[in-house]
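Hello,

Following up on my earlier ticket. Below are the two sequence lines again, exactly as submitted.
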Amino acid sequence: SQKIEQNSEALNIQEGKTATLTCNYTNYSPAYLQWYRQDPGRGPVFLLLIRENEKEKRKERLKVTFDTTLKQSLFHITASQPADSATYLCALVVAYSGAGSYQLTFGKGTKLSVIP
Amino acid sequence: EAGVTQFPSHSVIEKGQTVTLRCDPISGHDNLYWYRRVMGKEIKFLLHFVKESKQDESGMPNNRFLAERTGGTYSTLKVQPAELEDSGVYFCASSQDRDSGANVLTFGAGSRLTVL
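Thanks for your patience. The regenerated structure is below:
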C-alpha cells in the first residue's frame, strides 16, 4: 500500500544546531516533492519544492534533498532559531490520471521545537 | 494581496445538522482545492476546481459532501447531514497557474468543524 512517513512526530533541538527532518515514502513515484510549515491554528505555508531530477534545493537556511532511489527526502534547517518551531509537512505531488489533475499527498508532519 | 479566506473559523453542530463552509481564494486564482485533516491523521485531498468546473473530486468521502464554485470565484463545501466522523479541519487552497506538479498552493487558515 502507499505510505508516507515522517520520521518522528516531534523533534527537539538546541538553538543554533541543524535540524534534520526525514520523509520516507513507499509505492509512490512522485515527480515533485514539497515541504510546508504549519503553525498552530494556521494553514500550511509552502517552503520548498524539489523535482525528481534534482538532488538538492536551497533557500536561505533551508535545504531539501530528494533521493528517488531511497524514496526519501531530507529537510534541513541550519542555525535553527526558536522562531523555526512549528510543524513541518512533507507532501508528494501525485498525478491523478483520471482527471489530469495533481493532488498533494501529505505526511502527518514533524513538530519541531527549537530550545533557546 | 489578500490571502485565502475561510469562514467560519470554527463551527460546532450536532449530528444530523447541516454546515456550509466558505472559501474565498486569492483573486485571479483559477485553481481552488479543498483538503481536510481529521484528528490524528494527515491532511487529505478532497477536490479541485478549475474556475467553476470540478476537475477532480476523487477525494470526496461520500455524497453527504457537496462542493460548489458558482461563477468561478468563491467556493462552498456543504456537509449534509453531518456525522461525527466529519469532525476535523477543512482547508481551502488556491493557485494561479495551470495545474501542474510544480504548482504552489496558498492555504487558508482552515475551518474547524466539530460534530457532537
